[in-house]
Design brief:
Elements: H1 2-21, E1 22-24, H2 28-35, H3 37-43, E2 57-62, E3 65-70, H4 71-78, H5 83-88, E4 99-103, H6 109-115, E5 120-124, H7 128-140, E6 146-149, E7 152-153, E8 158-165, E9 187-195, H8 197-203, E10 211-214, H9 220-225, H10 228-233, E11 236-240, H11 248-255, E12 258-264, E13 269-274
Parallel strand pairs: 4-5, 4-10, 5-6, 7-9, 10-11
Antiparallel strand pairs: 1-2, 2-3, 8-9, 11-13, 12-13
Helix pairs in contact: 1-3
Length: 275
């Protein structure tokens, strides 16, 4: 009974948390919908998901930057899933002389945060839908030090199918779960260009990286295989390892001169620091 009640209240807690750290910059109607969401949730207890309580799209002012996105992306991925890393890990790694590479940038949470602090940001994202939001958010925040690479990183150059699930279990917008390796029961497929990280960095004129963040929904192992030169020089790697078949990456990075510093067991993010 206690578990059931907790699950019922959890969506409301999410909405309230968003309201604590972000304010809407949309029109009067959007602002009204944003701030009346908790009341709607209480009035429809158990019948509505929290994404359904907010405007379809939101332009939010947050302590991480300005973000325009579908409300499902904002809540589920932007301000909840990665806030711990950005608040507690990244500030220790990213400074004014840092070259930061965001592999799997999605709509730009890390990219926008880093562009205000780093010297240079390379933002890699293959999903056309997420890419549109990413570019909009870069422009909103006047991130003049960001280079966007519209490719899927892998262990070789070529083309492949990017699979974007039509729905998720939570009912949220699934663009952040697009993958070149995972299969979904129902998914859109789009052909995307693949390349190695070493090759991409050479093309954009970056010869060394300070901080590398990798979150590519199961393709992390492929990215690592195509980043041999980059990993010889990088100072820190924050990588999501959620699949058993990619656990070899832990040993590989340790043998490449990195120390495993932190594991976020909730979202399977591993932080490696060069010894």
């Amino acid at each position: 009974m206690i578990v059931k009640k907790t699950r019922e209240v959890y969506p409301l807690l999410k909405v309230l948390r968003i309201m604590r750290i972000a304010k809407p910059l949309t029109g009067v109607r959007g602002v009204f919908e944003y701030y009346t969401a908790p009341i709607k949730w209480l009035a429809n207890l158990g019948r509505l998901k929290y994404e359904e309580l907010l405007p379809t799209h939101l332009l939010l002012s947050t302590k991480y930057g300005l973000y325009y996105a579908h409300s499902g992306n904002v809540i589920t991925f932007l301000l909840l899933h990665e806030a711990y890393e950005v608040e507690n890990i990244m500030p220790k790694l990213v400074g004014k002389d840092t070259v930061f590479v965001d592999v799997g940038a999605h709509i730009g949470f890390y990219t926008v945060w880093a562009c205000r602090r780093a010297r240079r940001v390379i933002s890699v994202e293959p999903n056309p839908a997420a890419l549109a939001y990413l570019k909009a958010n870069i422009a909103l925040n006047e991130c003049s030090n960001v280079i966007v690479v519209p490719k899927a990183l892998s262990d070789k150059r070529g083309y492949t199918k990017l699979k974007i699930p039509k729905t998720t279990e939570e009912g949220s917008i699934p663009s952040a779960l697009s993958s070149i390796v995972w299969d979904y029961k129902e998914a859109f497929e789009v052909e995307v260009e693949t390349d190695t990280l070493d090759s991409v960095l050479e093309e954009v004129g970056v010869d060394s990286v300070d901080v590398l963040k990798i979150d590519v929904e199961g393709a992390e192992g492929l990215v690592v295989r195509g980043a041999e030169k980059t990993l010889k020089k990088a100072k820190a790697v924050l990588i999501e390892i959620c699949c058993p078949e990619n656990m070899w990456v832990v040993g590989y990075l340790k043998n490449s001169g990195y120390k495993l510093e932190i594991i976020d067991h909730v979202y399977k993010n591993y932080l490696f620091i060069r010894r």
